[in-house]
Amino acid sequence: MFDRDTEGVRIELRSLTKHYPGQPAPAVDNVTLDIPAGELVVFVGPSGCGKTTTMKMINRLVEPTSGEIRIGGRDVLGLDPDELRRHVGYAIQQVGLFPHQTVAQNIGLVPKLLGWPAAKIAERVEELLALVSLEPSLFRDRYPRQLSGGQQQRVGVARALAADPPVMLMDEPFGATDPITREHLQNEFARLQKQLRKTIIFVTHDFEEAIKLGDRIAILRERSHIAQYDTPSAILAAPADDYVASFIGQDATLKRLALLQVADLPVAYPAPDPRLPQVAADASLREALDLMLAHGTDRCSSPSGVLTYAALCAAVGSPAETVSAGER
Ligand SMILES: Nc1ncnc2c1ncn2[C@@H]1O[C@H](COP(=O)(O)OP(=O)(O)OP(=O)(O)O)[C@@H](O)[C@H]1O
């Protein structure tokens, strides 16, 4: 349906507006936004600001009042809505699994609608269950009620991915899980997206989740007006205004350190030093900082050489005192 089949395609929203009948003001008012191909863009904003409405206009579960939507260059409003939805993965917090169908049947739903042969669907179900870390032989024949909340959400994500759509819309897909399961699902999902490079719009209330998963974050005000749209590190480094700063909270520097890896930092000496605390190359600078603080030292060693506290502060453009005293 879209130009490239399974890898992400660009999404363009142009002056998109939704005015629900009988409401005094539009729920979404004149939103223009470009979502680059293969990126994960997170919508963050207060309850009722129009995140879900904006998302549902993209797969036409809600019809826009005015404006344009293009996916991979194609005008979505000119397409058949059912046909469109078969090519846009959709995962929501309430999961929406069919209770009287098995896990395999739930995941195979869209491929079946698309007329895939049974053997190909079965193969895809196995592959997806493995992808979301559910052992196929244990889970494929269970019913949703026989799964934990986190397992159901994984099946929801697998189902959204089933037909390998270039675009995925995800509305708080990990919302109903406890913090540990949620973190686990986020990590798995981040790993998956690195391989898949779908174009994903992801709605969340949780700014930490937005930073962790987003290539870009759109911070929305009421009626989906865009307060800031940029990469997590750019937003953390320079929030556009007090409204954006209020989402970030007090510890912007620590959050920025969490986004950078040890491997990104210039080394003070090019050889590892076995006498210093050791940090892995793929650890975050926040982990490196924690290690230095735990050992009461201003340096640690990675496989590529010795890192200093001063270099760490310089990486986030912060005076040393800010990171150590001001934020911990
Ligand atoms: N079907 C509808 N009819 C009338 N008003 C609606 C309808 N759906 C949503 N709204 C209103 O539109 C506004 C935006 O709702 P929406 O669900 O898009 O917000 P949201 O940012 O996703 O909120 P939340 O974070 O609480 O899920 C709200 O004021 C809501 O009451």
From TrEMBL:
Enzyme class, UniProt record, top EC level: translocase
A Pfam family that the UniProt record links to this protein: ABC_tran
Domain ABC transporter span(s) in chain numbering: 11-248
Keywords in alphabetical order: ATP-binding, Nucleotide-binding, Transport
Keyword Nucleus included in the entry's annotation: no
Molecular function GO labels: ABC-type quaternary ammonium compound transporting activity; ATP binding; ATP hydrolysis activity
Domain of life: Bacteria
Keyword ATP-binding: yes
InterPro entries from the UniProt entry: AAA+_ATPase (IPR003593), ABC_transporter-like_ATP-bd (IPR003439), ABC_transporter-like_CS (IPR017871), P-loop_NTPase (IPR027417)
EC code: 7.6.2.9
Family: Belongs to the ABC transporter superfamily.
Name used for this protein in its record: ABC-type quaternary amine transporter
Natural source organism: Nonomuraea rubra
